[in-house]
């Protein structure tokens, strides 16, 4: 007799590839322990009596947020009249400086982790601040809430203002110590996080290159080609580089699994470098609009075979829910479509749904959708409080719930095979 068999039942919707949506109305996700055994229209006998039945609700893979700044959570919705470099100096850096205080970090990160999981976000790549202790607190709180993925102690040894700066030596030593302290973690793992080129001296980048070479398990996250003033500044700092990405490549950080947020102004050569190296572009449309950075060429990147996933980029982005990022991506792409003389197609709902579900699953080594053998990461969505409309299909119901999403849309969340909400 097999043990630990159970199932959840509901209207299954998932995306295995960009642009494709699959459905199984009234279907079952069959489970053994924390892992998916398969999906089925019928309930095999051995699962009888162990079914969590969500009736007419919709079950999808949970959401991934591959770029957000945890210590900017207190400034959500603030500073939106500024552009990137002024916004960093006047809002982001002073706010992040407060995370020197552990108690402030604990309180903020407990709330953030709980708000993430409530919205069905179970996987993240998240920036902390430069503070090692607060970063460990962030990792603890994410794990306690059931949010998995990578977190990064930020490296920044220049241009952070008087309250948010580390020396080159401190930055390197603290990073090594932090990586070692966290080498045993299973759910939220360390990720190298040079903030962006203007924050990191060449000596610091050389130090990170050494750490990356010694710890091949550490992926890298940073920012790339987000804003025109930023790009001009990087050119001044690295006159030998014709392209921004080369300032990461020079130090061995441009490699498979590296993720680069924004990529608003990546030209053909930079995009080809991403594709060739296996570097991922993380699209953050809400942030790109709020701090007036621009509209990233997502359609072109996808056509060219660049890997793309999505981030809320709070607090440049003001919305923590990934369905909001998906619909922002669609809106932004329509403006790009119009301003390109309708040459570049806009993103569809099915594509945006993949970018907040399947793309993140792929980044973390799971099969997009409900893959056999993967631990269950799923969200149960409730549209019963929306206007009664019996004429719509299951995929239209999903579309509507993405556009009208709020925390009351989430009935249950599973992470690593365990119900967390
Ligand atoms: N570039 C460097 N730091 C940041 C940040 O905190 N937010 C955004 N959007 N871009 C950055
Ligand atoms: Fe960012």
Short structural description:
The protein has 14 helices and 17 strands.
List keywords for this structure.
14 helices, binds fe (iii) ion, 7-stranded mixed β-sheet, 4-stranded parallel β-sheet, alpha/beta, 421 residues, 36% helix, binds guanine
SSE diagram, text form:
Layout: E1 5-14, E2 22-32, E3 35-40, E4 51-61, E5 63-69, H1 84-97, H2 102-118, E6 121-127, H3 132-145, E7 148-152, E8 154-155, H4 168-181, E9 188-190, E10 193-194, H5 202-214, E11 221-224, H6 228-237, H7 246-249, E12 259-262, H8 268-277, E13 280-283, H9 285-290, H10 298-304, E14 308-310, H11 322-339, H12 349-356, H13 358-363, E15 378-381, H14 394-403, E16 410-415, E17 418-419
Helix pairs in contact: 2-3, 4-5, 11-12
Instruction: Report the count of strand segments.
Output: 17
Shape: globular
Judged by helices, strands and strand pairing, the structural class is alpha/beta
What's the story with the biggest beta sheet? 7 strands, mixed
Strand order of the largest sheet: 3-2-1-4-15-16-17
